[in-house]
Amino acid sequence: MIGIQDLTVTYHRHPAVHHLTGRFAAGELTAITGPNGAGKTTLFKAVMGEIPLSNGSIDWHGLTRAQVAWLPQTSRLDRTFPMSVADTVLMGGWRQTGALGRVTRDLAERARRSLEIVRMRGFEGRGIDALSAGQFQRVLFARLMLLDARVILLDEPFAALDARSTEELLELLHRWRREGRTVIAILHDLEQIRAHFSQTLLLARHRIAWGTTETVLTAENLRQARTMAEAWNDQAAPCASDPDLDRSRHDAP
Amino acid sequence: MTPHELLIAPFDEFGFMRRALMACLALGLGAGPVGVLLMLRRMSLVGDALSHAVLPGAAIGFLLAGLSYPAMGAGGLVAGLVVALLAGQVSRETVLKEDATFATFYLTSLAAGVLIVSLRGSNVDLLHVLFGTILAIDDAAILLVGLIATLTWMTLALVWRPLVAECFDPEFLRMVGGRGRGPHLLFLALVVINLVAGFQTLGTLMAVGLMMIPAAVARLWTRTLTGMVLVAMGVAWSSGYLGLLISFHAQLASGPTIVLTASVQFLLSLVLAPGGVVLRLLKRPHLAQ
User: N or C of chain B: less Cβ packing under 10 Å?
Assistant: First the structure.
């Protein structure tokens, strides 16, 4: 379980995620959805420690950073990079090999098994530039599996994938859930969320709703999320519930 | 003219030609892999900017010790490293992107370098610094270029895996605890020392020539990283050998001829290589499966 307590992340003083509180259920599939600019990716980055929190905290309940894995949006990667499928997957064994260690037989076997699970065996020697978008995403899922993480964060994992690739990767997500892993995915397809994800966080910079999917994805909640203003209000007053501000106010002579 | 007279005699008869060839081969050995990694990190123009950043340090070396390549090389090394670190730091701490900071720093360096050389030297000295004097290279300079190539390969052997991983997916490397900053700084240092090697032979304005043009050619010919490194070194070596021969027989300036020989290989590759235009346009029967 990951607890989020009063979490705020800001860009130039403007809140990208605003006073978010709740918890991601352990061993469940949770979807995060909301309009563009709702702070979904920002939330992931904050959780992964990529950007600092302006306020609030994250309770990992005993989990270490090494037990959490993150797959950002694939579009940021250069798919013409001269690297083989095998080398890409073996990057997932970095914690064993480091910069200089050799690839052990056990690690190579785990990489083979991961590729088999995502149905990419036989592609090991192929360059990633020869893969389709779906195949490339499956290779990245295989790489993620080498990390053996308890919590897996996926940022729009099915963007630009066809129905078949999406179905196969969704099946993999269910497999991870059966293995007791917690999977949190940013998604836009509400039907997909309803069909496969038991928990949902509906985000529009602040929490619109968080809980079981059927109670979250209601017409009223979705309407509220859609009304989120896309631009920040530069004239907005400082947030009244900001404890730092409160303290500075109290401390002021 | 016999083939021996055409291809071998200039190196057989003249010591300065042999030394120039040795310098080019050593330069290609180090600059080849460094150029490939620079290109894959989308830093090709940063390499060019850094090559100019070497100038003020070299100029201070020139002021202190005259036209001494070891002194100018040491000055260039310090100046290049300072600019690389400062430009990286400024782009991290401000809204400026790395290309803008490098461009600003390199123009400043170039102007400062030219000013310092002109304080003491003649126009001829300035030309030596800007365009190199590969035919006048001495044993100490060859040793320095060879040492740089050796150091480059030893360092790359240590940081190759994190450098490649960081090129491809820096976020993933950070997530699994790979320290991207150390190898990156080490790599920038490698770029600078190879530019110092290039500066000894081709001058500050073209030092990057045998680093980036061979890398671009290699990208057109092969799709594997190892293949790219090998092709890049081959192109640098052949450019050095053929460039020196052409400059000898046609009595042309050797530095620009070497770089232009690499450029000709680039143009030919643009047409003929698998990644070039002709094979992409050529209609070939598709495979059955």
Answer: C
